[in-house]
């Protein structure tokens, strides 16, 4: 059985590797087309270069950037609006163009909390992606953005409640960790065989390692600790295409 094509949409460089690096590597290794759209940071910045390095490791092609500014780092896209402040229809239209150009069977993005950290750019990326994944299939929605294409399913990267205690050992007790009841998780993907690539992709975001962000915290861990914390990726599935000939799923 062929492995479905997959387009991931995440807020910042490094989110793709942390939240879905294993799934991206797994699908690419099976011969599927994979790609990543990133909401923030401009193409001529250091973090965009780090993103390009991470995507090469994961087999996810070249960066696809919406080019908005990070909510907390105005210099991430000089002269551009913060992603959270940009007109919603504009952001959706830009993402629709990427979806129609790539024509993925599956779209992956942050859950409604914006993942475990709840960063406002993550939350807004979730909103924009939910709208764009549906609007991409509507012929009269910005026909200038490409021919209609309806992805079969949307997968929201999440964390179950049961995973939070282990995460606390890394992020600390003082930080809020957003998670969902375990029964809401519809796909728990064992990415152990691709963990080496996932680790390398996370560490390719060198500036985040250097400043002690999540990649920096993870860089201190042993491989067994990486496997315990990052060896499974969790998702909540939403069906989008009711006329799809067969159920399209992440490879688990």
From TrEMBL:
This is PIG-L family deacetylase. Keywords: Zinc. SUPFAM superfamilies: LmbE-like (SSF102588). PANTHER family: 1D-MYO-INOSITOL 2-ACETAMIDO-2-DEOXY-ALPHA-D-GLUCOPYRANOSIDE DEACETYLASE, N-ACETYLGLUCOSAMINYL-PHOSPHATIDYLINOSITOL DE-N-ACETYLASE-RELATED. The lineage of its organism: Bacteria, Bacillati, Actinomycetota, Actinomycetes, Kitasatosporales. InterPro entries: GlcNAc_PI_deacetylase-related, LmbE-like_dom_sf. It comes from Streptomyces graminearus. The keyword Zinc applies. The keyword RNA-binding does not apply. It comes from the Bacteria. It holds the Pfam family PIG-L.
């Amino acid at each position: 059985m062929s492995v479905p094509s997959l387009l991931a949409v995440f807020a910042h460089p490094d989110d793709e590797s942390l939240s879905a690096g294993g799934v991206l590597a797994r699908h690419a290794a099976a011969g599927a087309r994979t790609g990543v759209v990133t909401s923030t940071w401009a193409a001529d910045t250091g973090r965009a270069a780090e993103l390009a390095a991470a995507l090469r490791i994961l087999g996810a092609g070249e960066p696809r950037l919406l080019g908005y500014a990070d909510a907390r780092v105005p210099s991430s896209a000089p002269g551009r609006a913060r992603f959270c402040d940009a007109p919603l229809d504009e952001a959706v239209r830009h993402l629709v163009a990427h979806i129609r150009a790539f024509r993925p069977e599956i779209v992956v993005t942050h859950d409604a909390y914006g993942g475990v950290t709840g960063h406002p750019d993550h939350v807004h990326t979730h909103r924009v992606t939910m709208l764009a994944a549906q609007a991409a299939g509507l012929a009269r929605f910005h026909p200038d953005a490409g021919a209609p294409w309806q992805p079969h399913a949307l997968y929201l990267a999440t964390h179950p409640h049961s995973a939070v205690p282990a995460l606390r050992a890394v992020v600390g007790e003082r930080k809020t960790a957003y998670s969902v009841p375990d029964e809401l998780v519809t796909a728990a993907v064992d990415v152990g065989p691709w963990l080496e690539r996932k680790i390398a992709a996370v560490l390719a975001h060198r500036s985040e390692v250097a400043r002690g962000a999540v990649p920096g915290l993870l860089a201190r861990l042993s491989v067994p600790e990486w496997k315990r914390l990052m060896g499974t990726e969790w998702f909540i599935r939403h069906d989008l295409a009711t006329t799809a000939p067969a159920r399209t799923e992440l490879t688990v």
